[in-house]
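Appendix B. Raw example, untouched.
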Amino acid sequence: MKNTSIYFLLLLVTQTFSNQILQAQSIVSTEIMDEMSADDLTNQVGFPAMNGVVAYKVLYVTTGTDLLPDTASGVVVIPDEVTENGIIAYQHGTTSGPTDVPSNRSSEYTLALALGGQGYIVSVADYLGLGESRGFHPYVHAATEASAGIDLLIGARDLAHQSGFESIPNIFVSGYSQGGHGAMAMAQALQERMTDDLWVTAVSAMSGPYSLSGTMSDLVFESEENYHYPSYLAYIVMGYQEAYGDIYGNLSDVFRDVFIEDLEMFYRGEINLNDLNGRMITTSLLEYQSLKPYNLLQVEFLEAVQSDSLHPMNVALRDNDTYQWIPEFPMRIFYCSGDDQVPYRNSVVADSFMNASGAEDVMSMDLGEDLDHGDCSLPAFLATLNFFNTFLQPSFVSTSSNLKQIRLFPNPVQDRLFIEDERLISGTTIIISDFHGKVIRRTSYSLSGISVSALKSGIYSLSYLQGGELQHGTFIVQK
């Protein structure tokens, strides 16, 4: 079995032995995907840009699950003017298949452009088994999410230096959904690196499955509730087979026979993850009249996992939990308690473990009980951007635990902005600041909302005091 801790040890030894070579030769090739002015970027992504960008598809050297060199792909976005913001290493969420990746202009390519338009250098790895790299994708495999992200980060830093960025004062790590899991894994790996050439300023993990052996395992192997994303279970099992090699001998050892043909088609790339999910739902309803996840599994496999803590599947899940460590830098864990795909308890468990273990600045924030997994992404992105911006203007907003995130709506807004806070009363002083932290307006709150019609298109922050605590939110004015 390929134990993750052994993987990390071998990887670190390899990186230590050839650190100088990797840094000089990590980039295999670059190709310009887009060159955009600030106005063009704003029109393209629907998000007000502070600057233009140059976006590159990058092929770079990383390490495969077999510990052999692999050529992987990803995206690096560089502002068209030199800034002092630093790099955001962004880990992307679950994609539908090997070609649905940032380097092929997936939806999170647009997100990378938007972050680049705020003055950040951005790196987004496609991950192993996706994009240009070989093999089947080892889904939510912490070690390779981390190594693929770090190796592209090194390449992004070198590319930025070539573009005139002499100083890169900050390295931020973030990601949503699978990317939240990947962000946790990458941040831990960066903290534990034996070299000091990379450091972390802050981390924002969003709506990720950090507790695979606990929260996610309970959902799959124990819960009586219907779950509408059965393809995730299949993806994890097949991905861990790719990474570890001992989860099963044949797919039919794990899954009931009625699902095997579709699973094999997915593995061969003949259908994508969305197609697989639809087919598995249809089959489950026809065969079992429910969407209980354990109905997908062979009874013998299910009973073995439930009874044997050393079953290879349980060992793999524990190896890929990404919350059992103590961050030495500020971290925010954003989630929505209405999440229908990744149970929000993942975030609560991570927050609880880290704080109980002595973390100095880790805090989870619920961005909405009425927001599902898809709806949560925009407020989580805005909260992340605001959090990272505070390190550019540290006097603007404190990053300590007395900062409370609030929901603002509609967002984006054109005319009147409202605050979701039942305790808020008319007359409360509201402070609105621009992207750089400059206070541009002080006003009194009214139940009829706050007029923002006079503000130019852009990103703004709103804050006020409530019971001695600073309430804070980010919003976009979009004309």
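End of appendix B.
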